[in-house]
Amino acid sequence: MNSLQLNTPNQYNVKGISFSIDNLIILNFALLVFFTFFGTKLPFQEISSEELFKRETTNIVNQILYVFLFLSSMIIVIKRIDTISLFIKREKYLSLFILLCLVSAVWSSYHIISFKRSFQLLSIFFVLINALLFIEPSKLLKVLKIIISLYLLITVFSSLFINEAIDPRFGTWRGITDHKNTLGRYGFYSFLISLFFYGEQNKLSTKITNYAISFVSVIIVFMSGSSTGIVMIGLIIIISLIFSIEEIFKSLRIGRTMMIMVLLFIISLWIVINIFVPHFMDRIPVMLGKDPTLSLRTEIWDYVWTEIE
After folding, report:
1. What is the pLDDT of residues 292-303, one digit of tens each?
2. Which terminal Cβ of the chain has fewer Cβ within 10 Å, N or C?
3. Of 129, 145, 152, which is closest to residue 33 (Cα–Cα)?
């Protein structure tokens, strides 16, 4: 049939091809996650900032992807407008924030790119809202696990066997991305998301898979040499250990006390270091072989802070 027809409350038919709204939501979510990790350009390409700026409005894959996500999401929104309207009204501050981001393109110095970003943001917003409102979390986590596992496997394989997967400027892994820090960022994302997989550890094979994803994510971050990713993973592990103290000593009924004592010790140690060795924190990047200005970022921050004042 040439027109869209409703067969069941959740089943549709277009030109003889039947599909459900839920399957369309999962497809949109999978596409968004896949291209977020894998990108829409060829791997191993080094692109200058100027060339990247020019490609903002000429990436055909990007344009097709977000137009499809937007149109298909609008189909879902129209069919389930009552539920989505209720969510937008309930989460009014989130909705106002998204609206502010969208209209910010009006006063931008780069209108075309800003409107494009606003359109992408709106598409992503509706894809995620549809997924969170109408699909079971276990199904979304399964999609995330498949795509992240695939990304990690391809990254490790390419970094071990393909020369272009090594960042020529630093000699560290960059995988299929264009820079080591980009790989570090996605490795950190993978590690963070993998923590949500631990809630479904019913089988031994599932446990092994979940731990393997976290482990490989950490390895990728360290091999990328991304300082930000390494520090963030370190902080998450330390915080997790601190809050696990309460559970460890729970049977002795001193779990909360031990956790508070550890937190007080860390805070006291931080204060003592800042009093007696005031420049110790500044020396850490040098000790790790990093640029203490974070590639001139600190100088930019000083300038920006002065302008703000």
Report:
1. 676 777 788 888
2. C
3. 145
